[in-house]
Specification:
It contains 13 helices and 14 strands. The chain has helices at 18-30, 77-87, 100-110, 129-132, 136-148, 162-171, 214-226, 243-254, 271-276, 292-299, 313-320, 329-339, 344-376, and strands at residues 2-6, 35-41, 60-62, 65-70, 91-94, 118-122, 155-159, 177-179, 199-204, 232-237, 260-264, 280-283, 304-307, 321-324. The strands form two sheets. An eight-stranded mixed sheet has the order 3-4-2-1-5-6-7-8. Helix 10 (292-299) links the parallel strand 12 and strand 13 (304-307). Helix 7 (214-226) runs parallel beside helix 8, helix 7 crosses helix 12 and helix 11 (313-320) packs antiparallel against helix 13. The radius of gyration is 21 Å and the shape is globular.
Length: 378
């Protein structure tokens, strides 16, 4: 099957986070038995300069696919129409509902300007309540107008979990929705026998309101203020593009003294080195599509402290970590404090549960995608 993936960001980019890793793993796993082409921007999220690898009007071999990098002047509907009509793909796989790329392709398909193809839309968590709460009027207006125009008439949707399927179903009740979680990396480590001390918590995600890191900072501040020999650090690894929110986070961090470390963004290849020194991973997010940072921590045997707004709730509850309401500051404070006194025996059990869970998740993700592609190729 010839598949054209259209995504805002792809390799060698890294700042857009999990979606890039999901797409990389998809093309690496299924590029051997399918022809996969990727159309994407010629620069990383937030960058003004293009990748060195980007070559205008050329397909570049990368990660099991052929990639076309578009500079800003070539991201038009006309360019996309030309690419699609020349390639004649069997499947067009869109990686965002609200991307300008997706809007232009949906518009062209509805107008009959494009070669006929199956159309799969991976909304990537965009219908989660936390995501919809950001610029809600603009998003609702777009959905209403595009619905009137019939842009989604022949679209099938991909959800990463049954929860996300329900969110999509609220807007598209009659459409076909397939559950296939993001494909994570194949790397798995050995379980840990002891808890690394002094205890080190890590936050490996974008510093943004939806990721909700401020609740962890408030918990740290409370524990430090109470005294009792609180001896732990929080290492924050992630970019931010929201200056106002960054000021809020920095203000809270200053109240914690030298307990908080900010390392900025990181290349995905650095993640295993980061996790090597971690005792626990924290992600108090208000909404997650998949959360690669949680999978990576589980694969490294690092127990999890996560919110109840991720697809990983049941896994954490089964032994890989703990689940806490993202707005429950007292709950985060209590659990973080308890982590400081965890026994090595309990830590080892939770680390083993992390490894087992990560292995099962990747096996399930592969099976779901194989089933989905078989359906679309019928």
């Amino acid at each position: 099957m010839r598949i054209l993936v259209v995504a805002d960001y792809f390799l060698p980019g890294c700042r857009a986070g999990g979606p890039i890793r999901s797409l990389k793993n998809f093309v690496q796993e299924f590029g051997r038995e399918n022809e996969i082409y990727v159309v994407t921007r010629d620069r990383d999220f937030g960058d003004s300069a293009p990748y060195e690898i980007a070559c205008a009007d050329q397909w570049v071999d990368l990660a099991g696919s052929k990639v076309c990098y578009l500079d800003p002047s070539r991201q038009s509907g006309q360019t996309l129409r030309t690419i699609i009509n020349d390639l004649k793909p069997d499947l067009v796989y869109l990686n965002s509902l609200f991307s300008p790329f997706s809007r232009r392709i949906l518009m062209g398909a509805r107008a009959g300007q494009l070669h006929r193809f199956e159309l799969l839309m991976d909304v990537g968590g965009e219908f989660n309540p936390g995501a919809m709460a950001i610029k809600p009027i603009r998003k609702r207006t777009f959905l209403m107008i595009s619905g009137w125009l019939g842009w989604f008439r022949n679209v099938e949707f991909q959800a990463s979990s049954e929860i996300e399927e329900q969110f999509i179903r609220q807007t598209f009740p009659t459409h076909s929705i397939h559950v296939a979680m993001d494909i994570p990396d194949a790397v798995l480590h050995q379980p840990r026998s002891t808890c690394p001390r002094p205890v080190r918590f890590v936050f490996n995600s974008r510093v943004s309101p939806i990721k909700n890191i401020e609740v962890v900072l408030r918990a740290f501040e409370s524990l430090i203020r109470c005294g009792d020999g609180f001896d732990a650090t929080l290492a924050v690894h992630g970019d931010t593009s929201d200056k106002a929110y960054e000021e809020v986070v920095q203000s809270l961090a200053r109240m914690c003294g030298d307990r908080i470390e900010f390392h900025g963004g990181y290349d995905h290849t650095e993640i295993w080195g980061i996790l090597k020194h971690a005792s626990f991973t924290v992600l108090p997010s208000r909404g997650e599509n998949f959360a690669h940072s949680i999978y990576e921590s589980a694969a490294a045997g690092v127990p999890l402290l996560i919110s109840d707004r991720t697809p990983w709730t049941s896994i954490a509850q089964q032994g890989a970590g703990w689940v806490i309401d993202p707005d429950d500051t007292e709950g985060w404070t209590r659990r973080i404090g308890e982590c400081l006194t965890i026994s090595d025996e309990e830590y080892q059990k939770r680390s083993q549960s992390c490894i087992d869970s990560a292995k099962a998740v990747r096996k399930l993700a592969m099976a779901q995608h194989q089933k989905l592609l078989a359906h679309l190729g019928e």
